[in-house]
Every structure is written in structure tokens, then in C-alpha cells.
């Protein structure tokens, strides 16, 4: 569910919404930081005083903008890992409603609960909204997610919440209300959802059976006993460790 094994073309074909969102993240970051188009950042940042003056688009535009390389890398990587399953399960329209709905709820809460001089950027509130949907799914729609993936999501969510409170320059209210917004929208969004099907798995074609009986005398000696984690488990733990490392990079850069 969270192990990505699609190639670049397949990923874009299967998950166009996620691909477009990540592309926008990277494009805007490049335009601002490499081409000096700081007007994009000035017009899009979630600045509470400007919202008070009627610039309500700032409740949406911060979802697309990021302040630094580690910031855009962490959020884009999180979207790459955790977005595809929901895009397939919910469908494009419902996924967009959940993603931007949670992000806007997070930004509205930030506007009302922070002071007028507070400003922020980042897709973290929307991404925490995805975690909120998974959280609801893990407890109330268990037929949509297996136990291993439920445990992984809860573990990642726990790490994310800890990093939220210990990292500087983090919009804590945005993270919390993004998560709450996603969980609140989940009952409606998941009404007709179906379990995730991993389209990136390559199925091996079986050759026709010739009917001959084959026996290998040493088959039992060649059989290995597995005592460590499976390949899938190693990949999941690798993803987890990678996210933790990215979190610490974002903490100090």
C-alpha cells in the first residue's frame, strides 16, 4: 500500500493528481529559489494580516509553497508515499476534496487562532489531513486497510506529531487541524471507497505444465529458514527511517 514499485511513467499514469501536486511543489520552489521570483512567495504566503484585509486566496495558496529545500523534499516525499493509495481508493475528485479540504481547514484554524503577524507556507496541513483519513480508516473502516499498514500509519503519525512539537518554525495548529480536518471528512469520503490494488506489481506468467512429475532430491536441504523481516518489511522500515532522517534535516536546515 505504501511501498512504491511503479516506474516513472506508470506512477504518472496511475496517480496523475499526486504527480501534478508534486510537480507544482517543485516548479514553484525552483521559480522562487533559483529564478528569484519572490513575488510568487509574497503573493501566496499565508499572512494573517493580509487575509484580514480580504486576500482570502491565502487560505489556499500556502498549500503549494515551501520555504526551503528540506521542507519541499519532505512534503513531496510524504505525498509520494502516502497519497497514491488514497487517490486510487477515493477517486480523483474525492481525493482533491480531502486534500484541499484538510489544508484549508488547517489554514482557517491558523488564521483564527494565531496573531495577525503570523505567516506560514507548506502542504503539511493537507498531508496531515491524509493521515487523518488513514487514522479514521484504521479504526472504523478496517476492511480497507490491513493491520500492518494500520500500524505503520499510526507509527508515522506518532513520529510526525512528536516532530511537530519539537521542531522550530512549525505551524503546530496547522498540523493538528489538518489531521482533525482529514479525520472529520473521512466518513463522507470513504462511503464508496474500495481497498487499494497495487498496480505496480509485476505478475509472472506461468508456463504450461508438461504433465511430467519432477522431483528434486535435495529440495529440503536447499530450503532456507527465514528468521528476519521479509523484503516488504525491510522496504517499509527503510521508508520509515528515511522519513525520520528527512524530518531531522528539516529540523536543522
Structure description:
With 253 residues, this protein is mainly α. The chain has a single domain (8-197, 228-252), classed as Rhomboid-like (Rhomboid-like fold, Up-down Bundle). It contains 11 helices and 2 strands, in the order H-H-H-E-H-H-H-E-H-H-H-H-H. It has helices spanning 8-14, 16-33, 38-44, 48-52, 69-90, 92-113, 124-140, 147-166, 172-189, 219-222, 231-252; strands at 46-47, 119-120. The chain has a two-stranded antiparallel sheet with strand order 1-2. Helix 5 packs parallel to helix 7 (124-140). The model is unreliable at 202-233 (pLDDT under 50). Belongs to the peptidase S54 family.
- Give the CATH class: Mainly Alpha
Distance between the termini: 31 Å
CATH topology description: Rhomboid-like fold
In DSSP terms (H or I, runs of 4 or more residues), the helix count works out at 11
Note the topology:
Blueprint: H1 8-14, H2 16-33, H3 38-44, E1 46-47, H4 48-52, H5 69-90, H6 92-113, E2 119-120, H7 124-140, H8 147-166, H9 172-189, H10 219-222, H11 231-252
Antiparallel strand pairs: 1-2
Can you give keywords for this protein?
253 residues; mainly alpha; two-stranded antiparallel sheet; hydrolase
Amino acid at each position: 500500500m505504501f511501498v512504491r514499485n511503479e516506474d516513472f511513467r506508470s506512477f504518472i499514469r496511475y496517480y496523475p493528481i499526486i504527480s501534478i501536486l508534486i510537480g507544482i511543489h517543485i516548479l514553484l520552489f525552483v521559480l522562487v529559489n533559483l529564478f528569484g521570483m519572490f513575488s510568487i512567495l509574497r503573493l501566496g504566503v499565508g499572512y494573517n494580516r493580509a487575509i484580514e484585509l480580504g486576500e482570502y486566496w491565502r487560505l489556499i495558496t500556502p498549500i503549494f509553497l515551501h520555504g526551503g529545500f528540506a521542507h519541499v523534499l519532505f512534503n513531496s516525499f510524504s505525498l509520494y508515499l502516502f497519497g497514491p493509495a488514497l487517490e486510487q481508493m477515493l477517486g480523483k475528485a474525492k481525493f482533491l476534496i480531502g486534500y484541499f479540504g484538510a489544508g484549508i481547514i488547517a489554514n482557517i484554524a491558523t488564521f483564527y487562532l494565531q496573531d495577525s503577524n503570523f505567516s506560514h507556507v507548506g502542504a503539511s496541513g493537507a498531508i496531515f489531513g491524509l493521515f487523518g483519513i488513514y487514522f479514521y480508516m484504521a479504526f472504523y473502516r478496517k476492511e480497507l486497510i490491513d493491520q500492518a499498514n494500520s500500524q505503520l500509519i499510526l507509527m508515522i503519525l506518532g513520529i510526525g506529531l512528536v516532530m511537530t512539537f519539537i521542531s522550530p518554525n512549525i505551524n503546530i495548529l496547522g498540523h493538528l487541524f489538518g489531521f482533525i480536518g482529514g479525520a472529520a471528512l473521512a466518513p463522507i469520503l470513504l462511503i464508496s471507497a474500495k481497498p487499494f490494488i497495487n498496480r505496480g506489481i509485476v505478475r509472472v506468467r506461468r508456463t504450461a505444465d508438461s504433465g511430467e512429475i519432477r522431483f528434486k532430491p535435495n529440495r529440503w536441504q536447499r530450503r532456507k529458514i527465514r528468521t528476519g523481516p521479509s523484503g516488504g518489511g525491510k522496504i517499509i522500515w527503510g521508508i520509515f527511517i528515511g522519513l525520520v532522517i528527512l524530518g531531522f534535516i528539516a529540523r536543522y536546515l
